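2024-03-11 09:14:02 INFO worker-7 job=invfold-0412 stage=load source=structure_tokens
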């Protein structure tokens, strides 16, 4: 009422119904702003709860050794030792038994906690893993299901069990040039297939690459950050390239991790200019660390930042860095026990 009288006094040339209409519009806009702010606050609180929930590395173990987890279909997982944890989940060794009693052996179980009604991220990860099932050198998903434990909601991902990570191979050491090239070549091949599926990985680092026990095969794991990219038919626009450019550029940083003391990769912003600037820095690093074998690869990658990405061309540029490199050769191993990459 005070506001109405104030408006009537200062809008002397307006009729009372015009003043009333202005008042109603003001009131509606004010209510809309309050509701919008309220919704924004709710979204922020939801995101904060989600972030806190998914920060798995700072939380107590979700399960204990020997605990049995059952799927809705009757499959049984007996929890073993904890293998590790990250921001989005905890990983345990587990014995997998089907409902009919068939032993599926030892698997790696990833447990991801989420708030009730906020399972979009874990469901997205499951969908992407199912899409990636035919892709060579990607860890195989054997089973996934949700369950409730102590009033907490979880998604269980059961993967084939692999061995040491590249991160563990690089601890306090570097690997030789042929092994570095082979690591990069394999990852480029994986990303080429993901691009065809419309998937960007977005989280490449040495801890995401696992080796089988005899170090013959290396596979990519953990698609918690992966997304299905929006396709763009206009190939001349910048947006078409940088959707996938992060994955391609991250391979250059991975090569640096293999041959220098730097074991954590920088992650540039998702703009073409930022990628190009970061790659200039990578070239300086190559010069400083006698890594000229990767120079042509980074040059080709830089050229492709403003055009269409071609992982086949990137593979050719990378393999050209060493005349004797053959992608079909096995990894070169040390004579130590256990064997490591040389």
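2024-03-11 09:14:09 INFO worker-7 stage=emit residues=342
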């Amino acid at each position: 009422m005070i506001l109405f009288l104030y408006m009537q006094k200062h809008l002397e040339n307006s009729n009372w119904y015009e003043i009333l209409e202005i008042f109603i519009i003001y009131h509606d806009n004010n209510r809309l702003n309050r509701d919008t702010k309220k919704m924004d606050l709710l979204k922020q609180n939801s995101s904060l709860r989600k972030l806190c929930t998914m920060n798995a590395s700072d939380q107590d173990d979700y399960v204990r050794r020997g605990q049995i987890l059952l799927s809705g279909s009757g499959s049984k997982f007996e929890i073993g030792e904890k293998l590790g944890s990250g921001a989005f989940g905890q990983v345990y060794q587990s014995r997998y038994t089907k409902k009919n009693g068939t032993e599926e052996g030892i698997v790696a179980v990833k447990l991801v906690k989420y708030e009730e009604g906020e399972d979009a991220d874990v469901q997205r990860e499951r969908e992407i893993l199912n899409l990636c099932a035919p892709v060579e050198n990607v860890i195989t998903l054997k089973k996934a299901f949700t369950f409730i434990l102590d009033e907490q909601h979880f998604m269980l991902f059961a993967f084939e069990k692999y061995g040491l990570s590249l991160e563990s191979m690089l601890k306090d050491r570097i690997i030789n040039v042929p092994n570095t090239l082979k690591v990069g070549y394999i990852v480029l091949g994986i990303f080429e297939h993901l691009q065809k599926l419309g998937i960007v990985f977005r989280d490449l680092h040495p801890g995401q690459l696992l080796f089988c026990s005899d170090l013959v095969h290396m596979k990519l794991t953990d698609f918690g950050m992966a997304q299905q990219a929006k396709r763009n038919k206009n190939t001349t626009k910048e947006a078409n390239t940088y959707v996938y450019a992060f994955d391609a550029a991250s391979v250059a940083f991975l090569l640096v991790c293999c041959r220098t003391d730097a074991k954590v990769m920088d992650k540039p912003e998702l703009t073409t200019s930022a990628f190009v600037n970061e790659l200039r820095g990578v070239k300086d690093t190559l010069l400083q660390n006698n890594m000229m074998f990767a120079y042509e690869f980074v040059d080709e990658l830089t050229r492709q930042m403003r055009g269409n990405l071609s992982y086949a061309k990137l593979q050719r540029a990378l393999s050209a860095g060493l005349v004797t490199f053959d992608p079909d050769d096995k990894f070169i191993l040390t004579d130590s026990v256990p064997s490591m990459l040389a």
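2024-03-11 09:14:09 INFO worker-7 stage=report msg="The longest helix spans residues 16-54."
2024-03-11 09:14:10 INFO worker-7 job finished
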